[in-house]
Structures are given as structure tokens and as C-alpha cells.
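hey so u asked for the seq, here:
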Amino acid sequence: MNGVGWVALAAGWVAVGLAVAGLLLRQGQTTPAALAALVCWPLLLPLLGAARPAAGPYGVRIDEAVARLDRALREVGEPLPEDLRALARALHQADARVARYDRLHADAADAEPEDRARLVEARARAAGELESVLAEVVRMRVQVGLAALAEGAPVRARLGELSARVGGVDEVAAIGARA
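ran it, C-alpha cells below
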């Protein structure tokens, strides 16, 4: 193979790597995994279409809310993919905890009534906080649209606040579990 052939092969390799990297980012993989795809994309093909861990009761709502917020941000020229991925990850982690409460409750049929009651209370607190954050994501989407009409919005700071609040779901649940 001559020099032109090698250049064409390398260009094709990187082009496929870019495509795989984009798909990985789109499905929620981390940025380092996507960057690795530029060079070693054949090894990362199994990650494409990889099943997400078992979704909790809010999984679909989380995906829809984050996708709508992403569309709203892109429409106003404020795409924040890293921040949105971080928020989505935090929301899905909180959702997984709620699902874990549900599994524990189902497995605790023979547990003491007060233990079951504590479990129900802790689940209700975690689910309530998750519901509250999802409502904030919807409000933020509306605010992004309104701010676009009024020119400008501190979107990145608000996403950081929501991510921190989702992280607090663990603390709220832990306090309830100790009570």
C-alpha cells in the first residue's frame, strides 16, 4: 500500500471513531469512553446499544425531561451536554435507589411492621425529592424558553444546583433510615 492508501485508511479509521464517539456520548457514556473510541473504536462497539441498568420507576420520565431540556437549551444556543449528562446520571442513580427501596419492600414481607414502615417512609422521602427535582427540570425548561425571549439566562449555575439537590436524595434517605 502506498502513502495515499495509508492516509485514506487512517482518515477512515478516525472518521468511524468519531461516529462511534458521537453515538457513545449520545447514549450517555462518559467523555473518556467516547474519546477512547477515536483510536480503539472496534473494542468499544459492544458499548453501543448496551442495556442501561434496570430502570427504576422514574427512568422514562427522567429521560424525557432531560431530552426536552436539552432541546430547549440547543434551541437558544446554550448546549450543555456535560452538565446535562451529569444531571441525568444523578437522577438515574436516585431512581435506582427508589427501585432498590421497592425491591427491599417486596422482599421484606416477613419483616417487623415498624421496619416495613420505616422502609416505606424512606422510600417516600427519596421519591418525593426525586419528583421535586423533576418538577424543577420542567420549570427550568420553561425558564430557558422565557429567558431566551428576554435574552440570557444563568443556565449552567441552575443545572449545578439541581445536580447537587439530586445528590442530597441519599442524605435525605439516610436520615430517614436512621430515624
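The chain has two domains: 1-51, 54-178. The helical segments are 3-26, 31-44, 59-75, 81-107, 113-150, 155-178.
lmk if thats what u needed
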